[in-house]
Design goal:
Layout lengths: L6 E7 L2 E9 L4 E3 L2 E3 L3 H4 L2 H7 L1 H5 L6 E8 L3 H19 L4 H6 L30
Helix pairs in contact: 2-4
């Protein structure tokens, strides 16, 4: 039985987690089991698409891989960031020489910023109720 060539990477951003599989192909996207011709059909925003596909553009491998992506949690912005990190990590599995290119642009660094928790007595994390002198 022929074994499928598969390069895997996990990406996380905010509360989103993306599991990305790159397989040699012609650039199709399968996201959460559904086939898409373009990533824009899922992310709905050109800026998020550019952000998510930056590792592929930097390494000039756009259209060389079919991407099978399982993504859950968070909103579309966080999911775009998770997909970006997952793609970058999968590309380093494909070719370790690409690590230098991706690392220099900060594409292999997990964005650790998270939403600050709400504190008691406040309306949000830092917003206090209006002060009343009397």
């Amino acid at each position: 039985m022929a074994e499928k060539i598969d390069y895997y990477g996990t990406g996380r951003r905010k509360s989103a987690v993306a599991r990305v599989h790159l397989r040699p192909g012609d650039g199709r996207f399968t996201i959460n089991g559904k086939q898409y011709n373009e990533l824009k059909d899922y992310l709905n925003n050109d800026a998020w698409v550019r952000y998510a596909l930056k590792p592929v553009v930097m390494t000039e491998s756009l259209g060389k891989f079919d991407m099978i992506i399982r993504v859950n949690g968070g909103g579309l912005s966080g999911q775009a960031g998770a997909i970006r990190l997952g793609i970058a990590r999968a590309l380093t599995r494909f070719n370790p020489d690409l690590r230098k290119i991706l690392k220099s642009d900060g594409l292999l660094t997990r964005d650790s910023r998270m939403v600050e928790r709400k504190k008691y007595g406040l309306k949000k994390a830092r917003k206090a109720p209006q002060y009343s002198k009397r």
